[in-house]
Design brief:
heterodimer, A: 243 residues, Rossmann fold, 6-stranded mixed beta sheet, B: 191 residues, mainly alpha, Arc Repressor Mutant, subunit A, 2 domains, 3-stranded antiparallel beta sheet
């Protein structure tokens, strides 16, 4: 298994003196290629901070973060920005699509920012939209898309090109449970195809799609789920209670 | 799970053989509740005794016989579908009792107990979700059965989250209760 994301003894402190907040404390976390990891925890447990640090949007106070074997603290700002454009995809709760751009333009944007030609970027964007089943909406603007379509476009933007690490913060937003399941099936499929994904959520039904669930409290990892036995054992035990 | 009413429902579509009833029951409940031959046979015999189904009389093996729903059987099925499920029973589930007790036993960290149960429930949810993930998107009966379990487990996780937060804000005062019920002196300890 190849680690795509590694956090070693990561700490994050905001403020000083009486206002000092230890948002993350001694976090060790490895996410391998092909793995979907969910982070669960109450509000203020550090879930979102962990995600922004993993995505190089924020610096650590202590410890090291590696994405595809490259240490983020050792990089310049420009190098980190390039890494974000090429290797890391983000999916946010409120989708964050630019309303003045079409679905395809939104998805192609990170590639174009990285210097790819408009034509090549459009081709890759179309492929990502196709994988997510929204290719026929490529030329629609975000306001004309349904909630489920917007979320698929946002995920397409998160995975377009050769992205190896997908970071998702409550990725199903306000979608209903059947549409949420659709989003989770997509994330599941993307990781099965070799990407690594970290998803922050407070929703146990979403977290249950993950290969591993990590529980956070007060900035620390307090627990995580064991590798699950096969579903066969489950059906056998359900039978026992049937009579 | 009412095998009895499931069989009535299958017969509402038309006459069927015993063996056919067993196979269809399994297929439609997402094969989560495999039935044994005896269960189907016994249930059919009781349904016939109660006048809810009738059978053709040739042969005495219930699985080879053909069955048909009676008028009374149709009425029974409708009234079962309409009657409220037993959701109003007072809460006596084991998880709640364990947390309630853990919150009041000295030297037990109730939050650790809660986390152990939370992890266990989430692991169960992962296994149910894997059933859904591995099944075809078209297997709607299976998805319905698995969803029912997932929503039930999720409710328990949410209750644990809320119990956790509530107990952090306001722990149950164990010491006060002890001194009221059992004087410390009687146990040979100083208060």
């Amino acid at each position: 298994m190849t680690p795509v994301l590694q956090l070693r003894n990561v700490g994050k402190v905001y403020g000083e003196g009486a206002a000092r907040v230890q948002a993350l404390d001694s976090i060790d976390l490895t996410v391998n290629a092909g793995e979907l990891v969910a982070i669960m925890g109450p509000s203020g447990s550090g879930k979102s901070t962990l995600l922004t640090i993993a995505g190089s949007l924020e610096d650590t106070t202590t410890g090291d973060v590696e994405v595809e074997g490259k240490s983020l603290p050792a990089m310049t700002r420009a190098e980190r920005a390039a890494l974000r454009r090429r290797s890391i995809g983000f999916v946010f709760q409120d989708f964050n699509l630019l309303s003045g751009l079409t679905a395809a333009e939104n998805v192609a944007m990170p590639l174009e920012l990285d210097g790819m030609s408009q034509r090549d970027a459009r081709a890759l964007a179309m492929k990502a939209l196709e994988d997510l089943g929204v290719a026929e909406r490529a030329d629609a603007f975000p306001d004309d898309l349904s909630g489920g379509e917007r979320q698929r476009v946002a995920i397409a933007r998160g995975v377009v090109g050769e992205r190896r690490l997908l970071l998702a913060d409550e990725p199903t937003g306000a979608l209903d449970s059947v549409n949420s399941e659709g989003v989770m099936r997509i994330l599941h499929k993307i990781t099965r195809a070799g990407a690594a994904a970290v998803m922050v959520t407070h929703d146990a039904q979403l977290a249950a799609w993950a290969d591993r669930v990590v529980f956070l409290r007060d900035g620390r990892v307090v627990d995580q789920t064991e590798a699950a036995p096969g579903p066969e054992s489950l059906l056998a035990s359900a039978t026992d209670g049937s009579a | 799970m009412s095998v009895r009413h499931a069989l009535l429902a299958l017969l509402s579509e038309g006459p069927k053989y015993g063996l056919q009833l067993r196979d269809e029951f399994e297929a439609r409940t997402g094969e989560v509740w495999p039935l044994n031959v005896g269960q189907v046979y016994t249930t059919l015999r009781r349904l016939e005794r109660d006048g809810l189904v009738s059978s053709d009389d040739d042969g005495d093996d219930g699985l080879q016989k053909g069955y048909v729903l009676t008028k009374a059987g149709g009425k029974e099925l409708q009234s079962w579908l309409d009657s409220p499920a037993d959701a109003a029973a007072p809460p006596r589930d084991e998880l709640m009792i364990k947390v309630l007790i853990a919150a009041q036993v000295p030297k037990v960290d109730v939050h650790e107990v809660i986390q152990r149960h939370r992890r266990h429930l989430v692991e169960l949810m992962q296994r149910y979700t894997a059933v859904k993930a591995n099944a075809s998107d078209d297997d709607v009966p299976l998805a319905l059965v698995v969803d029912a379990e997932l929503f039930r487990l999720e409710a328990a996780v949410r209750w644990l989250d809320s119990a956790d937060a509530r107990l952090r804000r306001k722990p149950i005062k164990v010491a006060a209760r002890e001194s009221r019920t059992v004087p410390a002196g009687r146990l040979g300890v100083r208060a």
